[in-house]
Amino acid sequence: GLRFSGEAEVPPWAEGCIAPEGRPQILSPQAGMVAMLIPGMSPQEQEIPLEVSGGEAPYTWFVDGRWLGAGNGERLWWTPEIGSHQLLVMDGGGGSASVQVDVRLQK
Question: DSSP for 45-105?
């Protein structure tokens, strides 16, 4: 599986490797987002939408290096867990984007 350690630098693109639409961009969740879980509600009722634009379908989503799902650009849903998470999307052309999301329990 994929492994992430700290703030890894993505290597520069080789000439001709970028899809015509450019690299994918994560629209949701936004980088640095802090999601607050409401006590008493199940995590499934508090799912976070995953949305991407740009790049080239199909898109594959990973959370903390674990496969989450794939699609052609439609919204997917992630059931959050408390902690700090890296969400990464890879497109069909080999492009990728990632965001860091913190999930906390509302007090």
Answer: GG-EEEEEESS-S-EEEEETTEEEEEESS--EEE---SEEEEEEEE-TTS-EEEEEEEEEE
Q: What are phi and psi of 21, to 5 degrees?
A: -80, 0
Cβ atoms < 10 Å from Cβ of 72: 8
What are residue 35's phi and psi, to 5 degrees? -95, 130
Question: Is the pTM here over 0.85, yes or no?
Answer: no
Q: What is the pLDDT of residues 19-70, one digit of tens each?
A: 455 899 999 999 999 999 999 999 889 999 999 999 999 999 999 999 999 9
